[in-house]
Amino acid sequence: MNTIQTTAAASYVDAVRDALADLPDDEVAEVVEDVAEHLEQVMAELGGDASEAALEDRLGTPEQYAAELRAAAGFPEGGVRRSRMAAPLGLMRFLVTWLSRAGAAVAALGLVLMFADGPPLTPAYLLGCAVVLGALGEWVLVRRRSGDAASVLRELPDVRRVESWIAALTAKPWGAATVDFVVSLRPAWWLLRAWVATQVLLVALGARLAFPVPRTPIAMVVLAAAAIGSVWLGRQAVRGTLFGWRRLVQVAGNAVLTVLTPAVLVLAGSSDSYLSVWYDEPYYEPDYYGLHHNDGSAILNLFLYDEDGRLLEGVRIYDQDGRPVDNVEVWDWAECLDQGGWYAGGAQGNVFPRPAIVYTESGFSRCVDPADASPFGFTLPGSSAPAGVGPEPAAGDPERLEFEK
Amino acid sequence: MDTSQLLKGVLDLAVLAVLRDSDGYGYDVVRRLRAAGLTDVGDASVYGTLRRLYRAGGLTTYVVPSDEGPHRKYYGLNAAGRDLLAESTKTWREFADAMTALLETGAKEVA
């Protein structure tokens, strides 16, 4: 069964369901199950290339079909559509209209500025492009479907304009194939939107955008759950067996995620713009910035000993170009502010060793002198220098052993 | 005379009748009715009638997995359905006999 068939049948079923939307949910569910089965059979009878028009020739319009079924089943006359969908659909309509116009305006402005000043890769520009792409993507996904959400979109003047462009496109020999190809990518979209939803959720919870795949176990579980849920929802939607709030979640979720997808993709590709978009102040993740060992553990302080094994203090360190080596991650510096040391003493922040925070067993932290922060104390163990005043290292501390290597 | 108007009154009985000997899924019922000569029967009317008879308690329903496509929902008569069929059959026979008699009397008078 190819995509066109499935889609024509699904959109017919969708429209029938919408025409019966005033009936109780479980009754509608039962009826739609029958109607979906019916449409499959009729599709099979009509052969491989049945369109929505062919279906309507055979069965009447979805509305006529629904009216006939309603009369035979003894359901009450179709009255006003259930108003439960009215408010969210109205909101969606408003957002789609104005967001897409604002997005188009920003994108156009950005294009002009690009010729003047080079690429304007500002967050606003990226979001503007994202909104335009998202709105187009959403429309392509719903264009073959009828029903509440799609008809609300179709009534928008902007969408009508786009629809006429797409009609011109599909009139070309390659146009229809292109649109069908895009529609056939639906399962990929199900996975993509699960990924985007996970990223958005993680960012909302204060975590970092993880590209391409979250690395923490909890995030992976969230991603897996999102993927399963999204595919389930997608299959239900294609079959036309989603109702009530689930359908609303699907339509609204798609609308939001299609807008967010390009944004997340762009931002995931560039951590700098991500930081400037989502946080007012730069936010540094300990595992990401500053000097690191090859095994990924962060270097938080540097202790230099002379050849006799004595700790050197107040040493300024520079690289081969004369740049101060100050990109050493600082975790918990607040209590060391008044200690001079790296912060006040070294304006360039390249004075080592730095004072450090130590935690006592009772959980309090305090700032200690560089010599006290050293894993070896004032003199290296086994060196020729006389024993220093610094604390001796605790035996068997894994971090210190590692440092010795 | 428009047979679709006539069908409206007797579709319940027709659907019950084609399910008397064996259960069937929705489209099966449509096909059986057409094969029996009720060519004007509307697909949606049959599905609607099945739903109504089901809600009235005359039909049972169960799902059968299908090799070639989606699952099929079968409908079958239960005891209440058989009672309904018997009762409706009786009503129909009386009605049909009365109509036939009426038409024959009318035909004689015309002649």
TL;DR of this structure?
The complex is a heterodimer of chains A (405) and B (111). With 405 residues, chain A is mainly alpha-helical.
If you had to describe this structure to a student in words, what would you say it looks like?
The complex is a heterodimer of chains A (about 400) and B (about 110). With about 400 residues, chain A is mainly α. Chain A is about 60% helix and about 5% strand. Chain A has helices spanning about 5-20, 25-45, 50-60, 60-75, 85-115, 125-140, 150-155, 155-170, 175-185, 185-205, 215-240, 245-270, 270-280, 340-345, 370-375, 400-405; strands at about 305, 310, 315, 350, 355-360, 365-370. The termini of chain A are far apart. Residues about 1-5, about 270-285, about 340-350 and about 390-405 of chain A have low confidence and may be disordered. In chain B, strand 2 (about 60-65) and strand 3 form a beta hairpin. In chain B, helix 1 (about 5-20) runs antiparallel to helix 4 (about 80-110) and helix 2 (about 25-35) packs across helix 3 (about 45-55). The interface of A and B includes residues 33, 40, 44, 75 and 239 of A.
Write the layout of secondary structure elements.
The complex is a heterodimer of chains A (405) and B (111).
Chain A: H1 3-19, H2 25-46, H3 52-59, H4 62-73, H5 86-117, H6 123-142, H7 148-154, H8 157-171, H9 175-184, H10 186-204, H11 217-239, H12 244-269, H13 271-278, E1 304-305, E2 311-312, E3 315-316, H14 341-344, E4 351-352, E5 356-359, E6 365-368, H15 370-373, H16 398-404
Antiparallel strand pairs in A: 1-2, 3-4, 5-6
Chain B: H1 3-18, E1 24-25, H2 26-35, H3 43-55, E2 59-64, E3 72-77, H4 79-110
Antiparallel strand pairs in B: 1-3, 2-3
Helix pairs in contact in B: 1-4, 2-3
Keywords:
heterodimer, A: 405 residues, mainly alpha, two-stranded antiparallel ribbon, 58% helix, elongated, disordered C terminus, B: 111 residues, alpha+beta, three-stranded antiparallel sheet, 4 helices, 64% helix
Order of the strands making up the biggest sheet of chain B: 1-3-2
Share of helix among residues of chain A? 55-70%
Strand content of chain A: under 5%
Return the structural class of chain B.
Answer: alpha+beta
Q: What is the CA-based Rg of chain B, rounded?
A: 17 Å
Helix content of chain B: 55-70%
- Shape label of chain B: elongated
Task: Please report which band the strand proportion of chain B falls in: under 5%, 5-15%, 15-25%, 25-35%, 35-45% or over 45%.
Answer: 5-15%
- Average pLDDT value of chain B? 88
Molecular shape of chain A: elongated
